[in-house]
Amino acid sequence: MILHDRIAEILPAWRDRVNHLVTEHRDFKVCDVTVSQIYQGIRGVQIQVTDISYVDPYEGLRLRGYTIPEVLEKLPRLPGCEFPMAGGLYYLLMTDSLPSYEEALEVEDEWKKYAVIPQYVIDMIHTMPRNTHPMTLFSQGIMALGVDSIFSRQYLNGLAKSDYWIPTLDDSIRLTAKLPALAAVIYNWKYRDGSVIAPNPDLDWSGNFAYMIENPNNHEYEELCRLFFLLHSDHEGANVSAHTAHLVNSALSDVYLASSAAMNGLAGPLHGLANQECLRWLLKVYNSFESLPSKEEMADFARAELKSGRVIPGYGHAVLRTTDPRFTAQYEFAKKYLPDDELYQLVCRIYEVLPGILKETGKVKNPYPNVDAINGTLQYHYGVREFDFYTVLFGVSRILGITAHAVWARALNKPIERPKSLTTAILEERVAGKPDTVEVEM
Ligand code: CMX
Asked: Name one Pfam family in it (predicted).
């Protein structure tokens, strides 16, 4: 398959680069770790290397070196479509180069071969209690698909280490192929009549999700899916979901196990679940005013929220120090497709006043909107109003990045991850200047 061929072609040079770093510069110190970092979520500690994506504080996300506007401009799109095919994005993430139209189509065609969800997975979802969170169903569905893992089967048969990446890529293609259908099965069962709609072979991967949930606004919603699934596909390697997948996969658990684990992290309110909170807050603001609030009214509302100790969802970021370009891309989409939507107009009003107010606090490091400040507004406009489902959409997209990380981690022979933990007493002894007794094997 095209992804296998291209990775095989570029892999020797990548292995040389990494081997050079590890052999010639093995003792080069990358960063120090402070006591406060250890106790505060290892924030800022540079513990991962990934070439799939990088988040620059001032430019935002780069996917394989390309900014979001560049990716949107350069990736191939189907005739009549404004936004690129996810197949082209996957080619870029996996192979480090921009695909031609034909190459993007080849990935889309490969996905089509594996897009249908086996009946036993549908049955499993349909027998769960109705109140099961869609992220639980999504994670379970991914795990259940893993019975067919090619990596796990070949590993038992004595696969050579240098070839681990090949069945990892096979699994990745088969898993990602099924994600839109899996999400649609969950959506239709949780919120509709439970119909199972087969993927439409005439549509691309992203557009198919819109088709399988029978979105009445199909063409525009297909376009939103193309944009949304592209924007959420990756965000470096050390956020909770990416790091979880990396850790689990480093034990040679296959990509189904690793992706399911990642989704369990994404399901947390401090990670992927934040987007539903943003829409909830936006609706609270919306319902507090009879019409679009003036700038002054909005400013007073925001100040009162801050005064009562609440955070404003959708604003701020741990790494970014500017407006998230993923926010901007969706903002531009809304400007074109739904300029009269009242929630979108509220998003614009908040964007006008909130950065200034957050700056007034003197403590918020990034007073600008992140991607979640607008995600829900667009889904809501197109009738996907079930907030708890939004994280599943995020997950469908994010597994594109997660599986690309996994293929490259195996291709570059990354070993099992095993950092060292200490005790409080050891730290106390160290800060008191006592001799260090911890032996660390390098
Ligand atoms: N509203 C109010 N206060 C905020 C704020 C916001 N949107 N963003 C940051 N602050 C506050 C923090 O709570 C912190 O206050 P204390 O010192 O009193 O604890 C202070 O400003 C400094 O925080 P920071 O260093 O600027 O931000 P962090 O890196 O600690 O946190 C984040 C980042 C995203 C958790 C935070 O900005 C936040 O809670 N935002 C709102 C929730 C949100 O939008 N989450 C989605 C994140 C999307 C993503 O991660 O991709």
From this structure: Citrate_synt
